[in-house]
Design brief:
This protein is an alpha/beta fold. It is 33% helix and 18% strand.
Length: 356
């Protein structure tokens, strides 16, 4: 009589160890007849020592490491491509565990070493001047994937410049406030004593302008800094380049920023790219000044990194830029000019991730 071979039992998917809470790990070890303090040892390896495998957890027995490996896994990112500019900027394309690609940038300056990190794979906001806006949004990043970017970029800072990381900006791919919970969870880990122990005031989250989520930042009394990618201070022009403005008008954003400032007491930064023959007149500067009256703020004028998908956008000329800056300063605003970095590499947001 013919016998049928038994199908193998399905393999249970392992959980990412970084998603396991302290309480979950304590329960896991107790269920295995071990001591609950093992959970603290494991989390110390994960977050403080940035382990990417169980093999390196040398204060755990081999049997314990094998047990962890049977139930959990590390879904770490890896550097897929790294480009180094003549100005020292390092642009990395990271490959995630599922094959998706994101970007991160190390920006060296005289007084700081900054990591620019992503919050989503792609973006849904379709800003006309941004390469990421031409990519589909695939998914949100997990807190550990954001954390891993910071760790990788910190290593680059130490390797290339022998200097520790000093600042983090969420200005990479994606809209951070549309991945709110994961971004805040990542920042909690980055600032934790048993994490990277970075100061909250050294972290800036940049948003294209989601009014209700800006208010939520105020309700949650966050300690990090907030930046708004403004780029135009009237609704007609902002609608043209940032479709998100159609549902989050400047009036709505002003109301949200007042609420945020009242709750947090934190000065807001406005990011403003001065595009040639679009938003570079003194009338544009006056409109920006009027918007700046809503809350204490500073203005970062940002030099544009042109992209192939948006040939119509170019930086304004130096004379116009100087008049624009001088007008704002004449109104007693704090203004800084942020020069474009990495001009000889794919440094604009989304450029490198969009390349196959």
């Amino acid at each position: 009589m013919e016998t049928l071979s038994q199908a193998p039992a399905p393999t249970l998917a392992k959980k990412d160890i970084r998603k396991a809470s302290l309480a979950e790990l304590e329960a896991f070890f107790l269920a295995q007849g071990d001591k609950k303090f093992r959970a603290g040892q494991v989390r110390d390896w994960i977050w403080k020592k940035q382990a990417t495998s169980f093999a390196g957890m040398t204060n755990l027995s081999q049997a314990t490491r094998d047990l962890l490996d049977q139930h959990y896994e590390f879904r770490s990112l890896e550097v897929d491509v790294a480009q180094r500019s003549n100005d020292g900027t390092v642009k990395s394309r990271f490959r995630l565990h599922d094959g998706e690609l994101i970007e991160g940038v190390l920006i060296p300056q005289d007084d700081r070493m900054t990591a620019c990190v992503s919050s989503q794979v792609g973006c849904s906001l379709t800003c006309k001047f941004c390469a990421t806006g031409y990519l589909d949004r695939k998914r949100n990043l997990e807190p550990a994937e954001i954390y891993d970017q910071v760790v990788a970029i910190r290593r680059q800072a130490e390797e290339h410049f022998q200097t520790p990381l000093t600042n983090i900006v969420f200005m990479g791919m994606g809209e951070p406030l549309l991945n709110y919970a994961n971004v805040l969870a990542a920042i909690d880990r980055i600032t934790a004593d048993d994490g990277l122990n970075m100061a909250s005031r050294r972290i800036t989250v940049s948003t294209a302008g989601i009014a209700k989520m800006i208010k939520k930042l105020g309700d949650d009394q966050v300690k990090f800094k907030l930046a708004l990618s403004l780029h135009a201070a009237n609704d007609v022009k902002r609608n043209q380049i940032m479709p998100i403005n159609e549902t989050n008008s400047l009036e709505a954003l002003a109301d949200a920023l007042k609420y945020f400032y009242d709750k947090s007491g934190t000065r807001v930064t406005y990011e403003y790219i001065v595009f040639n023959n679009f938003n570079d007149t003194l009338q544009d500067a006056e409109e920006l000044y009027q918007f700046c009256k809503h809350v204490p703020c500073k203005v970062n004028i940002i030099e544009y990194n042109p992209i192939a998908q948006a040939q119509e956008f170019r930086n304004t000329g130096p004379d116009k830029l100087e008049r624009f800056r001088a007008y704002l300063e004449s109104k007693h605003l704090t203004v800084s000019i942020r020069r474009s970095r990495g001009k000889d590499i794919d440094a604009a947001c989304g450029q490198l991730a969009g390349k196959k």
